[in-house]
Structures are given as C-alpha cells and as structure tokens.
Amino acid sequence: MSEPAITAERLLKRYGNVTALRDASFAVTQGTITGFVGRNGAGKTTTLKIAATLLDADDGNCRVLGSDVHREPNIVRNRIGFLPDLFELPATLTLREYLGIFTELYGIPRGDRQKRAETAIQLTRTEDLAGRRMHALSRGEQQRAGLARAIIHNPDILILDEPASGLDPHARVELKELLRLLRERGKTVFLSSHVLSDLEEICDELVVIKRGNVIFSGTVSGFRQQMQSSMRWRVRTAGKSVTMPGHLKAEVVAAGSNYIEVEGDLSPGDRARWIADLVHRGVDVCELSPQQSTLEQEFARAVEDEEEAAS
C-alpha cells in the first residue's frame, strides 16, 4: 500500500497567546480529492501553509510523500503546487509571461518551457487571459491564473486554499472538471473550501477541523456514517396533511401541507404500520423515502457546539 500523500502528526502552532493548531493529525490518500473543512479561524490556512513549507509548526511533524516539510523543504516544493487564498500577481505581466518565469524558476528545460506553459493554460482554460496584463484581471480570473501557475511544473500534489473564491457558477463548474481531470491523471488534490456542495460533488475524502483539532479524517461516506445518528424519513401525500403516530420513536424535523419529515430509528414494521394507519384514514400516500442529509447539514452537526458556545 502506497504511503499517504500528506501526513500530519500532532501538529501544534501558536501565534502569541492564540493556539491555531493543537495536536492535529490526519492523512491524505494519494490520488484523491480531499476536502479540508472548518469554520473561519479553525486552523485550515495554518495547516495548508505548514504542508506547503511556508510555515513551521511549533511541534509535531508533517510529511509530503515521505519527505519532511521542515528538513526537506526543497524536495517538497518540487512535488507540490500551492495556491493561497490571497495572492498578488505582477500587474504589468501577461499570464503567458508570468508562466514563462515560473518554468525557468522550476528548472524546466528551455526547449520544454513554452509547451509546459501552453499545457497549463489549456488545462485551466485561460486561453482568453494568456495575453492580458494581470492588472486587468477580475478576482475570478486571477484565481484561474493562479491555478495555471500552481500546475506549471506538473506537481504530484496540489494544495489549494479556497480555490473557488471569486469564481462565478460557470467557472466553479470548470474548476471541478479540472480537479477531476487532475485526479484521473494520478494527481492528489487537497483543498479547503466553504462551498461544501462543491466538495460533496468531487471529494473522495474529508479532513474536518474544529478549533485547531482535527475531528475527522477519512472518506466522505465514513464522515456521514459517523455523524448520522439516525435516519430521516419523508412521507408525502396527495394533498392532505400528515401526522406522526405517538407510538413512533421519532422527531418531526420538517413539515408542510402534504408532507412530513421525521428523524429516528424506524424499523420496517414501524414504517409499514404508519403507512397502513394513513391509508386506513383515507390518506393517499404518494411516497415514503429516506432523506440523506447534505454535507452542509452534517458539517453543521459536527461543529454545532461552537455556535452554542458563542451564544
């Protein structure tokens, strides 16, 4: 079995009296798209910067494809592409000129530099930006330019901090397509995002951080299984309101003029008796179906005590 793309072990990082990371441990599997989620201030950017060799941890260690980020930073930098949340681009350069500089910095042979830059431009669909000066680019266009720079040296791992920031819906679709393509080519993508619906579509794994502590690291399905204490069920009728019998051990979580959603451990017998009771009372039942919660709902459940503490 191959070693993890990124391994963090008991990371600790303090900024003065503020502890940004405390005993944070996780692993990112090679060849996956792994989402990194947490509230603002939870420690996401600090963790990504440590993995990208831009920040030293106060304790613990982090390895990228087996190389220690503190002792072997140059090896790590050659194997990763990093896109920070906030970055500046040289105002007077075109994207093509900008990428040309990085092909030289990464030591790409002179004869391959133009081809490598054009490949990055094509992958990120920035052909329309290639000849434009950076100062004329919008926030979303700058994100796309930054992505092109991050993949210019064909890295094994991409570490992306809020790559969808500033992108319109069409550009977000293109970003997801690009990340899937990179995964198909054997790349590993580790990205933070507040757009959990996007992560739900593309991610294989999740790392969830809360107040500097990693509270989950594993598959998306594993996270759902850990967080979902009971199943949610929806009953929908042909226009009549629905009630829940008192003998059911469930809680009403949503209701409308012709439907009700309950959450609880309902056995097949419980569900059958409920439907039979409704039919006996002349209610036309159209649907009884399980309702899977969204990633946003599961994430909110994972960190809900933060809201309680703040209130």
Describe this structure in words.
By secondary structure, the protein is α/β, with parallel strands linked by helices. The protein folds into two domains: 6-226, P-loop containing nucleotide triphosphate hydrolases (Rossmann fold), CATH 3.40.50.300; 230-292, Alpha-Beta Plaits. It is 36% helix and 28% strand. The protein has helices at residues 44-51, 73-79, 95-105, 110-123, 139-150, 169-184, 196-202, 220-227, 268-280, 295-302, 304-310, and strands at residues 6-15, 18-28, 33-37, 59-64, 67-68, 80-83, 157-161, 188-192, 205-210, 213-219, 231-237, 250-255, 259-264, 285-291. The strands form three sheets. The protein has a six-stranded mixed beta sheet with strand order 6-7-8-3-9-10, sandwiched between helices. Strands 2-1-4-5 form a four-stranded antiparallel beta sheet, covered by helices on one side. Helix 3 (95-105) packs across helix 4 and helix 4 (110-123) packs across helix 5. It is elongated and about 80 Å long. It starts with 5 loop residues before the first strand and ends with a helix.
